[in-house]
Specification:
Blueprint lengths: L13 E2 L3 E9 L4 E7 L4 E9 L4 H21 L8 E6 L3 E7 L6 H8 L4 H20 L12 E3 L5 E3 L26 H4 L6 H17 L15 H10 L5 H4 L5 H10 L11 H9 L17 E6 L2 E6 L9 H29 L1
Antiparallel strand pairs: 1-2, 2-3, 3-4, 4-6, 5-6, 7-8, 9-10
Bound molecules: adenosine-5'-diphosphate and magnesium ion.
Length: 353
């Protein structure tokens, strides 16, 4: 069902007297994206539109985000693996970005079609994404929302990184200090309230690589009513231990597993230090000689802060950082089980006597 907060169109509607709407391309959290025909240049384009909020603080924030998105697109425009920008303007009530139309859908659509990808597919998509991230790092840009939905496939089958809507260029950006992103892909340090760096993007890329190689994300949670629990997911990112990918998909070569686990290290210092390094390791992976590669040893300690105090936790120990509500459920279950065992023992003793 259409999100009422997003701008909706009918086929044939004209935007800014120039862009004739063809169809919807997708929706994100903040914007709707449409395929349109540009009457002036006789080309097909994608237009991304977001409603301007009504209150002045909200307008400031939206403008600042759009400015960041525009700035990122502008410097990365010549990169083959980033969606290219055509125009940007603001009407009375909307912010509009006109860009290249990537018709092949998102990597999420492709992943849904095939689930676990082959080594060759992982190499194809991720080596190109690394190139896009390398370019971003060159301009000091941190994307902050690396995920399957924000990777598009161009008409020529090429991989295009999109949605720089919450990207930051300088740590003094208005937005830099906000904990923002998608919890399923969010790095431990961002979950911990720290400012995202290019190593946080590498972590998110690692989550995506895990998901594409195994068919399932390392940290997932769905409550009984189907809603995801962001606080639980964020605790898992900080101290949960990812299951070795080859335990889920036996076809994953040891070297790919090792690279993925290293990208998912809790401490940014232990991750590959650049997208270029990830790309180099990825392209060197071969199926042959797999028995010569030793399994990666995932670090067992995580550093994070709890109520502004630094804390060291054992990785894998999710219970200690669960929010009160979850902890209550866990301890309740524990005491009920203990009670039943004791009652069982007493009954058995009485029967024996
Ligand atoms: N240039 C484009 N070409 C084709 N589809 C696009 C394009 N940009 C975005 N989309 C589609 O629209 C969706 C939302 O766009 P996105 O930029 O991610 O918005 P948001 O910032 O609200 O998340 C994407 O997941 C994708 O399906
Ligand atoms: Mg998006």
């Amino acid at each position: 069902m259409a999100n009422k907060n997003l701008i909706q169109f009918e086929e044939g509607d004209l935007v800014d007297g120039r862009y004739k709407i063809i169809k919807s391309l997708g929706e994100g959290g903040m914007a709707s994206v449409w395929k349109a025909y540009d009457i002036k240049t006789d080309t097909e384009v994608a237009i991304k539109m977001a409603k301007l909020p009504t209150e002045s603080e909200g307008i400031k924030k939206s403008r600042s985000r759009y400015k960041n998105e525009l700035a990122a697109f502008a410097v990365l425009n010549s990169d083959r693996h980033v969606v290219s920008l055509h125009d940007m303007f603001e009407t009375e009530s909307t912010l509009v970005i006109v860009m290249e139309c990537a018709e092949g859908g998102t990597l999420n659509n492709r992943y849904r079609d095939f689930y676990d990808m082959t080594l060759e597919e992982v190499k194809f998509y991720f080596s190109r994404l690394c190139l896009a991230l390398e370019a971003a790092t060159r301009y000091n840009i941190v994307h902050r929302d690396i995920k399957l939905d924000n990777v598009l496939i161009g008409t020529d089958g090429e991989v295009k990184l999109a949605d720089f809507g919450i990207s930051i260029k300088n740590i003094d950006d208005l937005e830099a200090k906000s904990t923002i992103g998608t919890p399923k892909y969010m790095s431990p340090e961002v979950c911990d309230g720290q400012i995202a760096t290019h190593l946080s993007d590498i972590y998110s890329l690692g989550i995506m690589m895990y998901e594409c190689a195994t068919g399932v994300a390392p940290f997932i949670f769905k409550s009984t009513n189907g809603s995801t629990q962001n606080s639980f997911l964020m605790a898992m990112q900080q101290i949960g231990k990812p299951l070795a990918p080859s335990k889920i998909n036996k076809k994953i070569p040891q070297a790919l597993e090792n690279l993925i686990l290293q990208m998912l290290e809790k401490n940014p210092e232990f991750r590959p230090q650049s997208a270029a390094e990830v790309r180099k390791s990825l392209l060197a992976i071969k199926r042959e000689n797999a028995e010569n590669v030793k399994p990666y040893v995932y670090r067992s300690k995580a550093f994070h802060s709890v109520k502004n105090r630094k804390k060291i936790s054992s990785v894998g120990n999710v219970y200690s950082s669960l929010k009160g509500r979850f902890r209550t459920k866990f301890s309740l279950a524990f005491w009920i089980i203990l009670f039943l065992i004791v009652v069982g023992l007493i009954v058995e003793m009485v029967v024996l006597i």
